[in-house]
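Lab notes, practical 5.
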Amino acid sequence: MQTTDRKTQLENALRPIAEALGYEFWSLELVQSRGTSILRVYIELAERHIRVEDCAKVSRAISDKLDEIDLISEDYTLEVSSPGLERPLVTASHFARAVGEEVKVETFLPRDGRKRYRAFLTAVSGDEITLEFEKKSVQLRVAEISKAQVIPDFTKPHVPRPGDKLLDADDGPIEGADVDADEA
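Output from the prediction step:
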């Protein structure tokens, strides 16, 4: 079985489980590493940041499904996490959520002698994105892109989401201090 077929089958089997638990299934990666495979499943929540408890909950649920469907015959490690600040951009909707951000994009084939771009994502229309860099712009179809991710901008202020823990600089979480929906 080709890796792409297996990846699609895994996505089709695991997406409904994450969504039934109330999470957005962001993407998955199946990578080879030192004789074993790593299955990384990325989940997201619109209303707050992902916590360790969220990852554990989804991991338990999809682990049972993985045992049932047996699509990974070799030894593997399951990792469930948030897509993080350097989130991978895989679908047109992922790119649409990152408009205005700086991104790194790599294409399968060179375009005008270039495969790698560090640029600002300025637009998404259907399955086509527009990147601006070095006073130039380029349009790429999402299908042409082999890898893309957001480059975090640490100069922007953090906007807390409901459920985020408020932190004291010296002591960690402030007891009983969560950001509620009215504060975010």
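Observations recorded by the TA: The chain has two domains: 3-81, 92-150. DSSP finds three helices and ten strands in the chain.
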